[in-house]
Every structure is written in structure tokens, then in C-alpha cells.
Amino acid sequence: MIDEKDKTVIRLIQGDLPLDPRPFASLAEQAGISENEFIGRILALKQAGVIRRFGATLRHQEAGFNSNAMVAWQVPEERIEEVGTVLSGFREVTHCYHRRPQRDWTYNLYTMIHGESREACHRIAQRMAEEVHVDEYALLFSEKEFKKTSMQYF
Fold first, then answer.
1. 28-39 tens-digit pLDDT
2. Can you give the pTM of this predicted structure?
3. CATH number of the domain at 67-141, out of 3.30.1300.10, 3.30.70.20, 3.30.70.3460, 1.10.150.130?
């Protein structure tokens, strides 16, 4: 069970970290606890599974990746674990999800890929398809970004 101090720590780390040589010391001060306790709480929350991962969010367009696509894959259900594991291992993949197919939409595995151009995304998807021996897929390119934020829990 998480307490109020844990919620404060989560609230402080779910956004951008301060541009400071010791960002956790700065955040710990805001939380009213020591830097060691602040870091210890993050580690305990991660170990308990409350926090799944802690990492940076890359603004792909600012980094030179001008195109991205959600690749929808049609994968036999008995191969979902195998194919999902392989596809999620590609460095160009930032998200990989299994979803139930819907009536007229038979795709069940989704990967978000990033490339320098649409052509690059097509090449990436083709390379991925060859690796997992899956021929049925569709690239859904992003046309306009309306919102990109991390979830705010507290």
C-alpha cells in the first residue's frame, strides 16, 4: 500500500525532472524528505511493482525522426507471445501491444515505430515482418499530433 509520501514522490517524478546536477535532491526538498529517502522510495515502489519503469521520453521529431507509424499486425493467437517479444526488441519500436481483433478489423498486435521518413518506416516494418514471418500488416501513419503527455496519477 502506498502512503501520502509515496504519492508525493510519484507526483514529483511523473513529469520532467529538474535541470539540476542533483534532480532528486531538488525534488526531495519539495517533498520535505531527504534525497536518500526520496530515492529509496522510488526504488521500493519499483521493487513492489507500483512503478513499472522509470525513463526518459524522447520527443522523436526533435531528435530527427520525422515520421512514425502504428503498425497493425495480424498474428495467429498462438504466436502472439513469440512475435510480440521479437517485435518489441527492435530499437525502432517504442510501444508494443496485444489487443483483441474486432469484427471487421482482424489485426491483433500493434507496434509504434519511428523513422526518418515514411519510406524508412516502410523499410523498418518490412524488416520486422521478415524477422517474424508475418505478412499481414498495415502501417497507420500519424498525420498530426494533438497531445503527447504522460499519464498524471496524483
1. 999 999 999 999
2. 0.67
3. 3.30.70.3460
